[in-house]
Amino acid sequence: MADISANFLGIKSPNPFWLASAPPTDKKINVLRAFEAGWGGVVWKTLGSQVKNVSSRYSAVSYNGSRVMGFNNIELISDRPLDLNLQEIKECIRLFPDRAMIVSLMADNDRQSWHELIKQVEDTGAHGLELNFGCPHGMTERGMGAAVGQDPEIARMVVEWVMEKATIPVITKLTPNVHSVVPTGKAAVEAGTDALSLINTIQSVTGIDLDTFVPNPNVGGKSTFGGYCGPAVKPIALKMLTTISQDPVTSKVPVSGIGGISTWKDAAEFMLLGATTLQVCTAVMKHGFRIVEDMCEGLNNWMDEKGFKKIEDFIGKSVPTLTHWEDLDINFHIVANINQDKCIHCGLCYIACEDGSHQSINLQYGKPYNTYSIKEEECVGCNLCKLVCPVEDCITMVEQRKGEEYLNWKEFQRRGLPLNDH
Amino acid sequence: MPITSNKLTLGEYDQHFSDIHPPFETHSAALVDANRCLFCYDAPCMKSCPTSIDVPKFIKQIATENIKGSAHTILSSNIMGAGCSRVCPVEKLCEGACVYNLMGEEAIPIAKLQRYATEKAMAAKWPLFTRKPATGKKVAVVGAGPAGLSCAHVLSREGIEVTIYEKESKGGGLMTYGIAAYKVTPQFCEEEVNYITSLGGIDIKYNQELGKHITLDELKKNYDAVYLGFGVGLARQLDIPGEDLQGVVDAIGFIYAIRTNNYATVPVGDKVAVIGLGMTAIDAATQAKRLGAKEVTIVYRRTEAEKPCTNVELDIARLDGCKLIWLAAPAALTGTDGHVSQLICNVMKLGEPDVSGRRSPVPTGETITLEVDMVIKAAGQVPFEELVSTNQLQHNKGRISIDNNCSTSIPGVFAGGDCVNGGKEVVDAVQAGKDGAKAILKYLEQ
Ligand SMILES: Cc1cc2nc3c(=O)[nH]c(=O)nc-3n(C[C@H](O)[C@H](O)[C@H](O)COP(=O)(O)OP(=O)(O)OC[C@H]3O[C@@H](n4cnc5c(N)ncnc54)[C@H](O)[C@@H]3O)c2cc1C
Ligand SMILES: Cc1cc2nc3c(=O)[nH]c(=O)nc-3n(C[C@H](O)[C@H](O)[C@H](O)COP(=O)(O)O)c2cc1C
Ligand code: SF4
Ligand code: SF4
Ligand code: SF4
User: Running DSSP on this structure, what letter comes out for residue A366?
Assistant: First the structure.
């Protein structure tokens, strides 16, 4: 059995799965039940001031009958009394001393407020702080949340205020509502943050009710941009995580990965791109705390299979394989091949290639079943047919290199090789 | 012992004749199956539907909740799409070709989805079709069955005035009078006919029989063209001794009685033998059982390998508790007091293949005797040969001969459906009606 425990800046947790700062972590009864279910840690729902929530506040995107592929909220930070939150945090730490307790913060925009809030939170015995620089709605109008995260200089200033006071590790949580997360990440690291976490939610309009014409969620006939999360945002989160892992400044601190993580596979992918711990919100809001059992077991089994003893053995392992387009091997070439024994004659590969790619599939008419085969000389190796084929391993891509040696675009241009030859 | 009716309670009748393929209960249930469909290109299911309904398209439309569009897709290829969704032998048509079969998984329930969309269209009476401006042309159609209705609908959409002459008092043809009661109800058939004719331009004259109330010459004189869709009607005689004993009935008449009367009033025996193994035999056997017969035995001359019905149909009969005797050909019926009491059969064995390629049965010399009080003949139907020959229509053993353009030997007279093919499925008759209409339109243009 592999060891899946995590050590994040000295904050230990029996597994790398934490609950992200959100409704599942906003009070003692949830958090205790989460710990009982096996979650390694929590990031307590953001504490701050001046909050009043509206209803409804959630909406979702469903696709092909699959519900909540993307999730959206216009909720603010914790709207419970600060004293009550602090009291409950203390009790949770006492009852489950082996779990990670991080508290998310968003103080009013002045040094004094941050210092006071940090003091109060540290008195609870919490193991770390997470700075909420991401909340994209409600708080931004007041100069907080994403308003901080979108401006590296303001972010740098706030992190400096925090580091003056904090005695426990500080994680800065980044907003994805920027062209690149690196500048703010860099500013935070330079200002002394101990770690980064990403992503918070992405501004969105999830859809419009075609009867009322009001976008979702509907708050008495009006709506507003909300924060998008859930499985739909995972690819964006992974891309942003990669840029943080590759940058020489931001890669110096550990990262907690967030954004659409629902299974152990998602978790492993985030870790391979540099995350040490994983935070989950939407998947738990959809399925409940129980999903952590499979996340732990699945990760464990995969690690055993791959021969990884501890999570550090593979964290960041995939980062070097993401490179610039210019560095890709132009001589690498593959062509599709259809296994006629497996083919069910649905024609999906044919029409996709015909209408959406390079007309490289041949149709031989039959009643009721047509036969499809690849025109190898036309096939550009784009992979589209393999992606749409509903039968496992029916279409395979066979390597047919164009040349022995590795040849990238820069070298190609330097040698003045002819374009459009393959 | 004469056979009696009213063997069951009202509740039992209702239960026995309730829908054999229940519809989707909920919208989400339909969505789950609709979303399973792969949306195949040049889909094999579509190629295996005689009316070529664009199956992937109509299923995708259910998935996107464009139910009106879905119903339009179905009904523009097959105006009896609602009825067909309940009676088509889909295991040998669309669903039998679904690519999921090749993956070893359940086919998409195409008919059930088709029913889902068309049921909504009929319930809401969506006016999905409009008529083109009147052309001033008039066409007479004989028979308000699937072939006649489908032909009339296409013609009316093209701005032609259609008059249908129907010998019964209701439309729908065998859909109304022949199909097993657990597939469609008479009320459904009536609603379907009304939905089809709600387009306008189609006038059905009931209780008007060709050859009795009207003649083909009159129709030819009064209309620009004539379409014959009068089906096949008569059950084939067995030509064995004792056929006129009481308790010996033909399947068509037996089913007609179930379709037109209260179940409790239909007489049925306790020990019933059914002769034949086509769809009609299965329908007669299962419905005899469902009316309260204690024992139903299906007698067939060949083996299971040669059976004309599908496995699904045979399973219905088996699940209803019907027994099967293979390789037995009826030889004689005996009776007491004028009522049938025994069916004597020759035991057969399979000989050389016949013209149809099936191995034909030959007698072994042995016989078996079944104790019966009712015998239902379902050994095929014969066409209205007399009607066809007296009107000088060229024919083949009573089946009207047509050329590639659905034209009979008489110019301006077209034909299709069971009266031409000798008896296939509803969906084939609908296609025949469409083909006939197309040919008539071409003829009228000249
Ligand atoms: C017992 C039985 C069960 C069947 N079950 C199924 C099934 O489950 N699924 C399926 O797809 N198919 C089934 N079929 C076959 C199907 O019913 C026929 O193929 C289809 O109805 C043929 O349509 P049609 O319009 O050609 O003829 P019909 O449906 O026979 O319609 C002919 C119409 O013409 C009328 N008519 C006849 N003679 C005259 C006349 N001289 N003047 C005026 N009108 C006349 C008739 O009253 C009738 O309304 C079954 C058939 C039988 C006999
Ligand atoms: C209803 C809701 C409330 C949230 N509240 C907070 C919050 O108070 N503070 C915060 O930092 N992030 C908040 N988030 C963002 C999540 O912590 C997380 O970053 C985001 O949902 C992406 O993860 P996921 O795809 O697993 O949901 C909230 C998300 C949701 C859905
Ligand atoms: S998509 Fe796959 S299964 Fe379908 S026709 Fe192409 S190769 Fe065959
Ligand atoms: S009409 Fe019948 S055969 Fe055609 S698609 Fe519908 S159910 Fe299948
Ligand atoms: S063959 Fe099956 S999966 Fe393909 S379009 Fe038809 S119903 Fe859908």
Answer: -
